[in-house]
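Entry 14. Structure prediction run on the chain below.
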Amino acid sequence: MTHQPAHAPADHPALPKPKVGVLIANLGTPDNHDYWSMRRYLSEFLSDQRVIDYPRWKWQPLLQGIILSKRPFTSGANYRLIWNTEKNESPLMTITREQCEKLAATLAETYGDRVLVDFAMRYGNPSTPSVVDRMVKAGCERLLFFPLYPQYAGSTTASANDQFFRALMAQKWQPASRTVAAYFDRPDYIDALAGTIERTLEGRVPEKLVASYHGMPKRYLMEGDPYHCQCQKTSRLLAERLGWPDGVIDTTFQSVFGSEEWLRPYTVEHVADLARAGVRDLAIISPAFASDCIETLEEINGEIRESYEAAGGTGFTYVPCLNAGGAHIALMARLVEENLQGWV
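Output returned:
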């Protein structure tokens, strides 16, 4: 839909009707699980200096040589195990699209067609620059950027924001912009996590619930990244909300990469320790992920489950991410509405 600007001459070209844009952003996904698709995706991801901050002269020869010669095969095999063959895309893509569609429908009830909702990926497609460009051309004069990371980390939230700001740099007429802050301690986020746990476990209290967060080098914490502290607070608030006995919930970190020490305890080791200690009813949840993805569907339900069972554990239950559930969409909508104040 277009309109003629006020006080413009009759021959002025019509412009898109002004809108407010909401752009939700997830981590990313390869286009497919073949070698070259995986190599392109991993190269983009692992070249991000927010993720791997080694000097480029030192890191890039190693990455482009040894690592990207081998890792696309193993990562591709893991993606193949969880691939949505019906839509020929990763589960992360399927879920993020559904989140976008449901959020758009919810916001339309309040704002009508004044707010345009879309989604992008930090790595892979749809790329953040391409979606920003599309939204600007559709008339978005104001843009709210919403990284889907409850806990802030430099390697996730900041990297997504960096890419958004780089996309704005390419626009001749930049829209006004805002970003959604971390929401790790919001009561409605904690309620949504607790509700998912209670439904999945059908009201029972497990011997242990492991809250497994994506890991990062310990050095990042020492350099001032607040991620570790925010993860710990999410777990504490979740324990209080559930009202379970002290000691049921453990906080751990997964997806360790490279040789330096990462945040501990490591999930894959911790679940094995629990099994050897006699735990036979283990549940695990990933509060840092807004959508189920390779790290949850394959790593937790694959590698981490196998570590637990190989050490003698039984009774392993994975609690899904919030995904496109009603409580999560309502939370997202409230975050958007709060951040759009004064704009619509």
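The mean pLDDT is 95.
Filed with the rest of this week's runs.
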